[in-house]
Specification:
Elements lengths: L1 H4 L3 E2 L13 H16 L1 E2 L2 H20 L5 H24 L5 H14 L1 E2 L2 H16 L5 H14 L5 H18 L6 H4 L7 H17 L6 H8 L11 H15 L15 H12 L10 H7 L5 E5 L2 E8 L4 E4 L5 E3 L1 H13 L4 E6 H8 L6 H15 L4 E8 L3 E6 L10
Parallel strand pairs: 1-2, 3-6, 5-8, 8-9
Antiparallel strand pairs: 4-5, 6-7, 9-10
Amino acid sequence: MLQEVLKKPILLDSDFFYFFKLNEKNLKNFERKWRLLETHDAKDSKSLANIMHKSAKHLKRDKQQNTPGYKQAVEFLTKHVNFWEDQALAWMKQGGFNSQELASSLWAYATLGIEPSAEFMAVWEEEALAQMKRGEFNSQSLANSLWAYATLGIEPSAEFIAVWEEEALARMKRDAFKSQDLASSLNQDEFDSQNLDNSLWAVSVIDSFSNSQDLKELYSAIRVNISDQSLINCPEAQRQVRDSDLWFTGKSKVLNPEREGTVSGFERKVGTLFKDAGYSIKGEAPNCLKAFFGESIDFPVSRGGETILVEVDGPDHYVRNWKTGLVRHNGATLFQSALMQKFAPEDIILRIGYEQVDPVLELDPDDSLRTAFCDNVFHHFSTQQPGAYGLKSQNGIVYSLERKRPLRSLAIA
């Protein structure tokens, strides 16, 4: 019985995160309340799910507002989420999470950039499948769940995709989305424009890193519900739909949204690192990429007639495993790499992550190891076949290259 598993119930949800911005005082309050999970159990599954969902929702807002304390809060949460997950597993194994609680919890993991344990994902998917088959997932829960899988870079099982497809397409057909007015589109039980856009993007992302599932038919079945341009009503929606079109068909009628071309401080430091080592970083990205990605490609690195395209990846490009502390690229970054590889099949694309290059950037500017790093990287790439690659650290400052998962097909329709 659940009550035998959870022996110290306390309602942690009632006043859990009613602050508007993180500051030093609220950060301490945030940590204090999360530590309650170490010694107390949530009174019910709703309280437990809300703790995770509210944390992610508030921290997402604070990230957008560049609020001081955001990074510390996420770091703290990553180190303490195991206490939440232990309780969540106990509830889920007894069927204690409803569909909304399941979906909001996985959405929270993805929003926070924290990778759930393999046990959590196995139990979560088993329970989600059972509830989807009973028709208990509403449209928003269906969309949020698939979006979370895609964002985390985790491939759902073939059974999950099949059941999700059956449920989602039946709801889309029932909703007769084209005739919905604004009021009805706000109903969580209907596929509004955001749910459709998120679902389409999720299908495309999962297809891009899957070696076993071909989701083009599912893309087409969702895409037909977004034929009205008014449903693609913001830059984020434009990016989602356009990139999905490009991935599956190689073309799109959706206007190319303004993609960020700003240079971050981290990107500038990496560029200077290569420049100081004698490499040129002044060239432009290939026209085949600029047409689709604008100025968002970071910079090319050239010397001796050889060029590699460098993408500099900060923390937002990764998910972190709370058990091991290791990071890997998230689904959005995998998708970006796959799109770049598809439209520039003759080019070499290198993703340099902050964890690999930070130790090098911290060295004295005159340290020969800085130049050695650049030479080692460039030497490896000059002998590689075209494709998308990432750096894998070995023994601290010595690096080797790790080929990304090859695409199933590079053909452009």
